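anyone seen this seq b4? input:
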Amino acid sequence: MVETGHNHGPPPAPVAPPLGSAREAGPLADTTQSKLYFTRINTKAGFCRVRVPFSSFRPVNPEDPPLDPFLAHTLTIRFEPRRQKPIEAPVGSNQDLRSFKLILEYIKALPTGQETDFVLVSCTGQGIEASRREQVLKAKRAGEDSLRRSGLGYTIIRPGPLKEEPGGQRALIFDQGNRILQGISCADVADICVKALHDSTARNKSFDVCHEYVAEQGQELYELVAHLPDKANNYLTPALAALEKNT
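predicted toks r here
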């Protein structure tokens, strides 16, 4: 995926700024095999940030194969105004209706892969004073949303209240749905973070986790599925396999 940040302002005189919506017929990718690929993105006046998946590029020659991002070596941007309003210009001067002003802040390629790029430890809200809980959760959720929109492969972990005790001593509960109430040791959370970095099952998933507990009779919210943390086996893969992605 390619991300561009640019400031699209009015073109310099004597050409008037384009009216209505406009579009950029780019980025335009060139490859080492001299094949051209293009895609179109919408733009607007002022600063804007646009993300363009490599999958959206189409070959200029319909007979060429799909774009291989690893072969692309040149990226260009072309502006296509839908319509422009001519203005009065000095006698003898020529107006180029294709002229425009574009300040390109940056272009960057966002990584993709099977494993997680970024692990974020958030919280469930349990153990926080009631007077501050809503404020804390609002800030935490905003951080989670920013990570999801970043284009990075992510894992968001929401542990119950953290405890200073040895890890690997109690089974862990993994869930989605804000139903976890119990705490968890800091050591167990750290182990989950490390394992999530190298487990493709954890990519693009958000989940709650706490120590196993036995619900009081009549208070069972869901079937408890516990996984005992053990350095000798990978408990994270089966624990996360049943959870939904892109959450």
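The longest strand covers residues 101-109. Residues 93 and 125 are 67 Å apart (CA to CA). kinda curious what u guys think
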